[in-house]
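Please decode residue identities from the backbone states below.
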């Protein structure tokens, strides 16, 4: 009877420990700032949604989306930004005008990853052609391995 309890204990411990390690939900950010300025962070939620931020210097890209986990690969689907603006105003003569301001070009959107690979508490980044982003330049302009590290959410 005690051997059964011991096996049951180890089985429950293994299942609980494996479930905790397989949870990918949480906050991740780049392991260093690219060229000393640019940082990527992503928050993966339990409901398969995420929040993405790429910021630094005068560039800024903040968006949301959903993700799907396929084995150890996370495929990201970004929501389409609709930042266009319609304003209706009246001039001094009482005439109404409607102005349309189109969505501004987001030149930092090309830094968005298309998928991520789970490796322990790290996320390896892949671009839209499926190529792994291995290295980026750090503040001293030296090439360094680049990935996202899991940390405590704020």
């Amino acid at each position: 009877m005690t051997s059964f309890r011991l096996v049951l204990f180890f089985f429950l411990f293994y299942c609980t420990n494996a479930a905790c390690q397989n949870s990918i939900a949480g906050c991740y950010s780049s392991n260093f700032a690219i060229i000393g300025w640019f940082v990527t962070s992503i928050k993966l939620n339990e409901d398969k949604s995420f929040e993405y931020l790429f910021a630094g210097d005068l560039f800024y890209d903040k968006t949301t989306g959903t993700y799907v986990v396929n084995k150890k690969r996370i495929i990201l689907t970004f929501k389409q930004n609709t930042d266009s603006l319609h304003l209706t105003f009246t001039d001094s003569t009482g005439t109404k005008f409607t102005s349309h301001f189109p969505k501004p070009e987001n030149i930092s959107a090309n830094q968005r990853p298309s998928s991520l690979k789970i490796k322990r508490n790290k996320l390896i980044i892949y671009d839209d052609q499926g190529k792994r982003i291995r290295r980026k330049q750090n503040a001293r302009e030296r090439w360094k391995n680049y990935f996202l590290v899991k940390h405590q959410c704020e």
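Observation: The longest helix spans residues 2-22.
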